[in-house]
Specification:
Layout (H helix, E strand, L loop, with lengths): L4 E4 L4 H14 L4 E5 L13 E3 L5 H11 L3 E4 L5 H6 L1 H21 L4 E3 L2 E2 L23 H20 L3 E2 L1 E3 L1 E3 L12 H11 L2 E4 L7 E5 H13 L11 E2 L3 E3 L1 H9 L6 E4 L4 H7 L8 H7 L7 H14 L1
Parallel strand pairs: 1-2, 1-4, 2-3, 4-5, 5-7, 6-8, 8-12, 9-11, 10-14
Antiparallel strand pairs: 11-13
(3R)-3-hydroxy-L-norvaline binds next to loops.
């Protein structure tokens, strides 16, 4: 049976790259980029695009009727920092958007649904180092609360209705193709742009703020590997812990200086994102993903830094 895949939130940092990769695997015509705004670049010219508002049920009905999707990736969400500026919109989009997609996927017989969670589901009382798959989870951002609640809904729709929905708790994702939007980990992207443009960067997170991070190529590959794994191998129906590396701004600056020796890193004080970062883990134990579907990251900090600088220099 030909796969027909919807990527809702296709213009975002993850969606942009997922559309490209899935179109390589399944054919351009079978992967529909869906977003509330027109693509920023020529994604529309390389395959179908639809305007989709995941909170508009009539709009979703028309799209599901038109495509009868076999797979749906729901990436549309407000991230941690933006979510704190607009808590009710963040809850509405992140929660009701998910519930709409779960319900329409059930109604139209979608075979598999993907929904991203985040390390933001952990909170101040979660273990900080090698945070396990199961532990205390007391998120204190709307983003984290919505992702934790969403995980519970995903597992509920699997157990109660048999919907094959799969999920990953992404760390901070570092990429060069599309700019990030409203995340706490985004300093680790902006630093590369400023290092090349200005030779310096002012970090809104402090020098010792260690966070779990991952290069986007690993995240995209891992996401597709999870979605293509046989259902019987999937033991986690909330969301999988998923890890690449962990570093703090000083670690990253030291790696950048191997390529740009004069790079200078400064620090801004009292940014609200510092409190968010302080509530998150410093490293993640993803042994369950490694066991269930043989997850293995390929990028470390050295490879990530080389890839970011090389690709950004190409312009
Ligand atoms: C954010 N990039 O900063 C996202 C991510 C773990 C962080 O969820 O909000």
């Amino acid at each position: 049976m030909t796969e027909k895949i919807l990527i809702i939130g296709s213009n975002g940092q993850i969606g942009t790259e997922l559309v490209t990769e899935l179109r390589k695997n399944y054919g351009e015509a079978n992967v529909v980029a869906c977003d509330i705004r027109r693509p920023d670049y020529d994604m529309k010219n390389s395959g179908p695009f639809e305007f989709v508002n995941v909170l508009d049920k009539d709009n979703l009905t028309a799209i599901y009727q038109k495509y009868k999707p076999t797979q749906v990736y729901l990436l549309a969400a407000l991230l941690s920092a933006t979510g704190e500026q607009n808590p009710k919109l963040a809850w509405d989009l992140n929660m009701n958007g998910l519930l709409n997609v779960l319900d329409f996927s059930l109604e139209f017989g979608t075979k598999r649904v993907y929904w991203p969670s985040s390390i933001a589901v952990f909170g101040p009382n979660s273990p900080k180092q090698q945070t396990p798959q199961f532990c205390t989870m007391d998120p204190n951002t709307v983003y984290g609360i919505s992702k934790l609640a969403g995980e519970r809904w995903c597992e509920y729709y699997f157990c109660k209705y048999g919907l094959d929905v799969r999920s990953i708790r992404y760390p901070g994702l570092i990429s060069w193709k599309a700019m990030p939007g409203g995340g706490t980990t985004d300093y680790a992207i902006h630093i590369f742009h400023d290092a090349l443009k200005k030779g310096s960067y002012a970090s809104f997170l402090s020098a010792e703020t260690e966070l779990p991070m991952m290069y986007m190529d690993d995240a995209i590959r891992g996401t597709i590997e999870l979605m293509e794994a046989p259902a019987e191998k999937i033991s986690i129906r909330s969301s999988y812990n998923f890890a690449g590396m962990s570093f703090n701004p000083e670690d990253l600056a030291a790696e950048i200086r191997k390529h740009l020796p004069n790079f200078k890193l400064h620090y801004k004080e009292n940014d609200p994102r510092q409190q968010i970062a302080n509530s998150w883990p410093q490293s993640i134990d993803d042994s369950v993903a490694k066991k269930d579907w043989q997850w293995q990251p390929e990028f470390n900090l050295e490879k990530l830094t080389l890839a970011m600088l090389t690709n950004l220099r190409k312009g």
